[in-house]
Amino acid sequence: MVVTGISGNLGRTLAKLLHREERIIGIDRRPFPGKPKDIELHQLDLRKRKAEDVFRRSPIKAVIHMGIMHDPRMNEEEHHSFNVVGTTRILEYCAKYNVRKVVVLSSANVYGPSPDNSNFLTEDAPLMAASRFSGVRDLIEVDMLAHGFFWRHPQIQTVILRPVHIVGPNIKNAPSNYLRLKRPWVVAGFDPMVQLIHVEDAARAMVEALRPEARGVYNVTGPGEVPLSAIFRELGTTTLPVPGPLIRPALATLFKYRLASFPPGEIDHIQFLCMVDGSRWVKDVGWKPKYSMRETIRSVIGE
Fold it and tell me: For the segment 136-153, what is each residue's pLDDT rounded down to a tens digit?
């Protein structure tokens, strides 16, 4: 089995779940500190032809693709090339070398938070995130590439997972960074419902996606939904309400000068709804998250 993006925190969590049951071949530009000895790691760029050698050398029965870059400070052209060209190459190899199962990690963020969203979005909802936050454009394109691959190659069991916000003690994405702030800004007058999933539950979902019966697009939810204010109460955090017209330009300035790690495009997530319906995933694989809401929230600070 090939796992791309294996050296990230989510990838390492997944590897620990799988490596005793499957032969794992990892592809990542980064090293894998503490890598289990039975995992074969190739430190290379998915866009390079050397990546094809991994598929050419021996039969690969499954691929989990999560080698997606999420760095808002990265050059936009390089960011787009790495994510979109890298995904295109991997899907080409899967078709060329008869891989039976393909799992692509997307995100519920592709729907985009909006004041017009209904309470729970199904997998058929339009992917509107880029209309308000161009930084999600790559992720939407990756999702659509995988969706097209699903229809063009019906002989391959393809799964596209759209999990809600992934959090955990070692996760350094925008939601986790924001929830760790000592005095986080909130948008005055707004308290949206939020869905979180523990990093270990997210890794478990990818394992479940390897089942033969899992095919197509799935929203993956955690233990439920909770108001943003309740998350901060659980963490014992005091927030700083800022009027909407002021928060965006102020955060943009702070982010530009590296005084903030929360990109201004993410503000919609602390102002508007973006909740998804995960019932299809529950029905098809019997999904039940292992971590409670309290455990999921507190995992952000390592508890």
Answer: 888 999 999 999 999 999
Q: Give the CATH number of domain 2-301.
A: 3.40.50.720
At 199, list the tokens: 């990093």
Distance CA 100, CA 95 (A): 9
Which DSSP letter does residue 203 get? H
Q: What is the pLDDT of residues 47-106, one digit of tens each?
A: 998 999 999 998 999 999 998 877 666 677 887 888 999 999 999 999 999 999 999 999
SS3 for 104?
Answer: strand
For the chain, the structural domain boundaries read 2-301
Other beta carbons within 10 angstroms of residue 139's beta carbon come to 23
Q: What is the pLDDT of residue 73?
A: 66
- Write out the DSSP string of 237-296: PPPEEE-HHHHHHHHHHHHHTTS-SS-GGGGGGGTSB--B--HHHHHHH----SS-HHHH
**Structure tokens that stand for 190 in this block:** 């707004």
List phi, psi (to 5°) of 248. Answer: -70, -55
Average predicted confidence (pLDDT) for the chain: 92
Q: Where are the beta strands (DSSP E) in the chain?
A: 2-4, 25-28, 40-43, 62-65, 101-105, 157-163, 165-167, 185-187, 193-198, 216-220, 225-227, 240-242
Decide: 15 and 24 in contact? Cβ < 8 Å: yes
d(CA 287, CA 72): 32
Q: Which of 225, 226, 203, 236 shows the shortest CA–CA distance to 303? A: 236
Q: What residues contact 31, with CB distance under 8 A and at least 6 apart?
A: 7, 41, 43
Q: Is 86 helix (H, G, I), strand (E, B) or coil?
A: helix
